[in-house]
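Hi Y.,

Following your request, here is the sequence exactly as I used it, all 206 residues.
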Amino acid sequence: MFRKMIEEGYLNIHKLILKEQTKLGLQSDEVVLLSALATLIEKKKNTVSITSLSKTLNLSVSKTGELFTEMIQKGYLNTELELKSDGKEKEVFSLDPLFEKIKAIFETEINQQKEIKQDSDIVYVIQAIEKAFDRALSSFDLEMIKEWFTESFTRAQIENAIAVALNHHKKTVSYLDRVLRSDDLQPTQLDDKKKAAIDKLMRGIK
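Below is the corresponding structure, written out as tokens. Let me know if you'd prefer a different format.
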């Protein structure tokens, strides 16, 4: 899907390479080479002439060939032999390894943003409950709240549960827990890494 979005022009690979140059660990000549190859991909071409490429990079043919080989060795592109209609073979290249590296950067950034938002939601929920119940929460209460986020209950669900509790004049976290679990749609479990991150934040709040 990521490759398809690039090939169809929904993502500008040239801007992505420049933007993530540092995270990708690329030098200036490597950026130019990958960008030149990306241009060929956009034109639906998967073959390259080292001689033509050397003119784009303003490097010698031998230096360009070395740089191309280094990019393969470093895992930014790969090549393979493809059978032509006349029965002969031709060498084609692919930027799939580069696309995977950029995709991994995106996924890391998205996960980091999710963790930041969840940390913020936990603090918000604790403060909201303390304000609604007009008291500080106990360690037991905090453990129960931690469990809600471990099980992926959302901030909106918890806010709704607070409203239900106040409407019934029930000001306990245990009652909130019963309200949340009364829904037929049970939340999914998170992985151990996520649980550990939530545990760390909760210890800091205590």
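The longest strand covers residues 78-83.

Thanks again,
Q.
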